[in-house]
Hints:
Elements: E1 3-7, H1 13-24, H2 30-42, E2 46-53, E3 56-66, E4 75-83, H3 92-106, E5 111-114, H4 120-128
Parallel strand pairs: 4-5
Antiparallel strand pairs: 1-2, 2-3, 3-4
Helix pairs in contact: 1-2
Amino acid sequence: MRVTIRAAHPQDAKAISGLIRDTLGLPVSASETAHVLARLCLSPRSRVFCAVVDDLTVGFLHVSDYDTILMREPLKVVTAMAVSRSYRRVGIGTALLRRAERWATESGAVGVLLHAGFGKETEAFFTACGYSAELPGPQFRKTLAGAPKE
């Protein structure tokens, strides 16, 4: 099996939205994903990478700049990652992370963060890839009144 890790393209929206629904359980449509993906593909502060096997997108990872006054050095953050269940445990997730780490290094970042709140299997995977739970805790979000709708 030959795995290719490449930059995502807007036409990957259908495959990515399927991975988001099937592996992350989030109800997103291909059109919603296409809208967001088109914006992300143009951003110099963000990258979306796809894992492709035999012309089939079997995984993706989104990594972005992480700007906060709490950190002195520039960092990146993995905001989303998914690998098809039938393609797990063959190195695809690791390859996606390594590609994100390479972009982080190339763009001057000194580290990559992941948000907490994963299950034990996922935590074990990230630990095996060299990540540690230095900043534990769930992620919270509030939608603000008057925020633009996508």
